[in-house]
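Hey all, quick one. A colleague (J.T.) asked me to put the adenosine-3'-5'-diphosphate job into the tracker so the inputs and the structure tokens live in one place instead of scattered across chat threads. No bug as far as I know, just bookkeeping. Sequence used:
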Amino acid sequence: PAPADATRPATDMAELLPSLPLETRCPPLPLRRYNGFWLPESVLTELPAIHARLEPRPSDVFLASFPKSGTTWLKALAFATAHRATHPPSDAGHPLRRMNPHECVQFMEMDPELRRDTGSLLEEFEQLASPRVLATHLPYCLLPESITTGEGAAASRVVYVCRNPKDAFISGLFFVKKVSSAYGAGASAGARAFNLEEAFELFCEGRVFAGPQWRHVLQYWEASMRRPKQVLFLEYERMLRDPEATVKKLAEFMGCGFSKEEEEGGVVDEIVKLCSLKELKNMEVNRSGGNQAGVRNDAYFRKGSSGDWRNHLTPELARRLDKIVEEALQGSGFAF
Ligand code: A3P
């Protein structure tokens, strides 16, 4: 079998999987380390099929993120922006008013509880009309080469959203508490006794879904430096400060910039409003709906602020994580 830190996904992942380092304390799912990242076994199992069968189109936009970094918001913004011609944001029947953003934009690696067989999921993607918007929590090094190579109009694009690691950690802690029961017997052991201290240790060791967080961020940041036309790097905190500028930047990058008429007609503001936390959180579908795995849609919407970690982490814990992250990023040119 290929070594654990091989650069390409092994074709026979099922065979390789048992030999990879295992972490069962991080809810809701058992994780394995592959290429330096901790990922659910089910995601790793699907990786070869995704690499072999996903055929990116030049108009595709892949939304990438470390979990709990603003994925839901980015999905809503990108979907509303890309499809504004067919679905004007002011429409009472807009898909985002009847569907959770995760239904409008699916992850290319599926939640195991929601997974149909991988073949049919990829077939579903094939049938989506262009421009397709798909999402992923995969680290950059595990994206299909068909996404990470190619330049200009002939290649697909990636939009990454990055968030302060302490806020991503706290957001994840609340999320896991809300969703663990949904995973029931399939949940990893830690789901039953998950507290801040234990979760913090695991986060610091990078032993969380798609962790280490800072390495995930760094890879996409480096890619955005190397391939600025193909990879757009956004920051959740900046998005909060200026969502209108974010939407304009996003539209430009996706190749569908706003016309003067649209801007003057308030389309940008309408998209920002439609996708705001307040608006989405209050929609009936997000208050009472849920997915097939039993994860309630309201779990995706909490405070949506910057710096909430101050209400939960002691200064000592905060300093510890800061130090780990700073050391890991030293010399990279990137800092949070
Ligand atoms: P908090 O838990 O800090 O409130 P993800 O979508 O990657 O799972 O990230 C979830 C975080 O994004 C949560 O952060 C959630 O409240 C916030 N969020 C969800 N929808 C949002 C929106 N429309 N605008 C701003 N933040 C949003």
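Adding what we noticed when we looked at it: Residues 1-5, 189-193 have pLDDT under 50 and may be disordered. The chain has 17 helices and seven strands.
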